[in-house]
Specification:
The chain is built from nine helices and no strands. The protein has 248 residues and is an all-alpha fold. Helix 1 runs parallel beside helix 3. 7% of the residues are buried.
Length: 248
Amino acid sequence: MEEDYEVPPLPDNPTMAQLKYHKEKKTRKAKAKSVLFSGVSQTIFTRIMTLKIAKAIWDYLKEEYAGDERIRGMQVLNLMREFELQKIKESGTIKEYSDRLLSIANKVRLLGTQFADSKIVEKILVTEPKRYEALINTLENTKDLSKITLAAMLHALQAQEQRRLMRQDHVVEGALPAKHHVVRSTASNQSKDKGKRKNFPPCEHCGKLGHPPFRCWKRPDAKCNKCNQLGHEAVICKGKSQQNEVNA
């Protein structure tokens, strides 16, 4: 692709070596052109389909998308800035986060700049949320983090994430039947209490239905444990209400 050449015609009565060389040269040019056509999107293909030789196609793509050294340098700087700004979302997964980081790293590499996997490992260690802090501490105590591979780091984090999600699912599944049981029990008790309240006459202390006089909050012998006064209980203490207003 870097240089163009003409395939000379075969001489009369060519040898087997000449036939082989001629076929190899023609096949190489056709293959290069085919690879370029198949490696681009449909939109780009319509721009290069009229070009006849592989070098012309390659030169067009380099000028259009790679640019000169200065442009590539700016692209690398922008990608590195984007890499540094990346953070894992609170509801995101390790795979989503690592895929974003790897995508940026691969773009930098395609522009001809070295980008070591160790930078991605360091980025993940620095930006991981607190839910992975225990695992990171374990890795620090058992492994040399300066030598740990990206694959090993991602495997450990994804395993921890999977265990955490499984525990959450188990807790939710166990909580649902208990919640339904509590709701049913509460509704049943409320129904029973409602039925009992109808059996009590008006209270002699407050005049309300639904409770016997000896349970009334306003009975004369009731003593408030908030203000230490007789005649009411703490649940209806005015001093308590006033204190709440002051605090608010």
